[in-house]
Amino acid sequence: MDLAEIATLFGARRPGHALPQGLYLDPNTLAFDMTAIFGESWLLAGFEAEVRAPGDYLSMMVGHWPILIVRGRDDEIRGFHNSCRHRGSVVCPPGNGSAARLTCPYHRWTYDLNGKLLAAGRMPDDFVKADHGLRPIHLETVAGAMFICLSETPPDFSTLRRQLTPLLAPHNLLHAKVAYQSTLVEHANWKLVMENGRECYHCATGHPELALTFPVNASTYFDVDKEHSAGFNARMAALGLPIGPAEEDWWQASRFALNAGMTAMTIDGKPTVKKLMCETGDGDIGSMRWAIEPHSFCHSTAEYTFAFFAMPISPTETHVIGKWLVHEDAVEGVDYELDRLIDLWTRTNLQDKQLSENNHAGVKSPGYLPGPYSPDAEPLAIRFVDWYCRKAEAYLARERGARRAAA
Q1: CB under 8 Å to 386, separation ≥6 — which residues?
Q2: 260/18 Cα distance (integer angstroms)
Q3: Cα first-last separation, the chain
Q4: Dist. CA 323–CA 365, nearest whole Å
Q5: Taking the mean position of all CA atoms in its chain, how far away is CA 57?
Q6: What DSSP string runs through 214-240?
Q7: What CA–CA distance (Å, rounded) separates 236 from 252?
Q8: Would you tell me how many other CB atoms lie within 10 Å of the CB of residue 131?
Q9: 312 with 30: CB under 8 angstroms?
Q10: How far, in Å, CA of 82 to CA of 65, rounded?
Q11: Rounded CA separation 210/125 (Å)
């Protein structure tokens, strides 16, 4: 990875404009993004509901990096690099599972749920098992959501914990279950996927179903109709539900009103789940949107939480994972119909896939020049790209300093 070339690309970026072509398409940029952005940031990994009992695990990929999250016998949730300390094989296959111990399928090295190596056959007498446990990663939980950071020195997490907890806790994610999960392969750079997910400039025409309930013409905090928003905010205050906004440069959360006459973020604006995640306000509490840079956003309503994750695979491919969480006691076919639950966001994700892939195809043109964002319609896209550039430039500055010191 040539940092001088990367720095030149960032130096060419005009404020308020889309990124230079090379920051979307160059394979060296993807390697940089994984190291400087995904390797240095807090990432939303999933939900405590996915590792409910001791021995439950979530095996996931961050790009090409295998990650393992396990609930131990002491009820603590821990994160590890999912790489055997023998020759590096993946210990637990991707997905969810449960195991009394973690056993590598290659040579049967076996670890306890805390990552400690228990057994390694046919090793010499001077082999020290205590030196070969699974390598840990940083993991934090907030109101049922799990966050990981792969950096040895992660960014401060305390403000997010303090400010997000009261906004998210009413949605009862500690008593949720994943009702459905989908993965879309999008042939577009991950930053184009995320820019698309950070603006609604395209929503009125690109998402006619979403536009029924979602305030698609709103700006940063989704308050396009001031009178409607003021009434909603007063009602939330009376119910004791905080609305925010709360934020740092790498995350943002706020509760907002759905369009007038709409009580649920569904295909017809009507509730679809009888067993609510939040019973306050009889289910009419808008949506609490929370977003984490660089890769996710969630909408938590009274009925469900929808979570969106974008993971880079190559400069031209991104995997978009969607998760729908409902109350742990909600019964499919009784309390909700799965097709209706997932309809709105499935359609929206498929529409966004087409839009992002078309965007990527155009960025490949020799005639591509970065155009200006709309400050009114795309403030969150500007926020994302500005954060990305600051994060990248801070990493480049540290690397330059380290290389000068080494020289």
Answers
A1: 15
A2: 34
A3: 19
A4: 34
A5: 18
A6: S-TT--TTS--SHHHHHHHHHHHHHHT
A7: 19
A8: 8
A9: yes
A10: 8
A11: 64
Distance CA 220, CA 375 (A): 10
The Cα 391–Cα 406 span in angstroms is: 23
**What is the rounded CA–CA span in Å between residue 324 and residue 253?**
19
40/390 Cα distance (integer angstroms): 13
DSSP-derived secondary structure letter, 94: S
- The conformation of residue 134, written as its DSSP 8-state character, comes to P
Tokens of 375: 């400050």
pLDDT in tens, the chain (407 residues): 689 999 999 999 999 999 999 999 999 999 999 999 999 999 999 999 999 999 999 999 999 999 999 999 999 999 999 999 999 999 999 999 999 999 999 999 999 999 999 999 999 999 999 999 999 999 999 999 999 999 999 999 999 999 999 999 999 999 999 999 999 999 999 999 999 999 999 999 999 999 999 999 887 777 777 889 999 999 999 999 999 999 999 999 999 999 999 999 999 999 999 999 999 999 999 999 999 999 999 999 999 999 999 999 999 999 999 999 999 999 999 999 999 999 999 999 999 999 999 999 999 999 999 999 999 999 999 999 999 999 999 999 999 888 888 88
CA gap 347, 340 in Å, rounded: 11
Model pTM above 0.90: yes
**Contact at 8 Å (CB) between 77 and 69?**
yes
User: Helix or strand or coil: residue 276?
Assistant: coil
- Angle, vertex CA 345, rays to CA 339 and CA 347, nearest 5: 80
What would the two tokens of residue 272 be? Answer: 């679809």
CB distance 57 to 96 below 8 Å = yes
Contact between 194 and 294 under an 8 Å Cβ cutoff? The reply is yes
The DSSP call for residue 131 is G
To which residue do tokens 């087409």 refer? 354
> All domains of the chain, ordered by start, with CATH?
43-149 (2.102.10.10), 159-363 (3.90.380.10)
State the alpha helices, DSSP H only, in 265-318. none
Closest CA to 261 of 208, 304, 212, 216: 212
Name 119's Cβ contacts closer than 8 Å, sequence gap at least 6: 108, 109, 110, 129
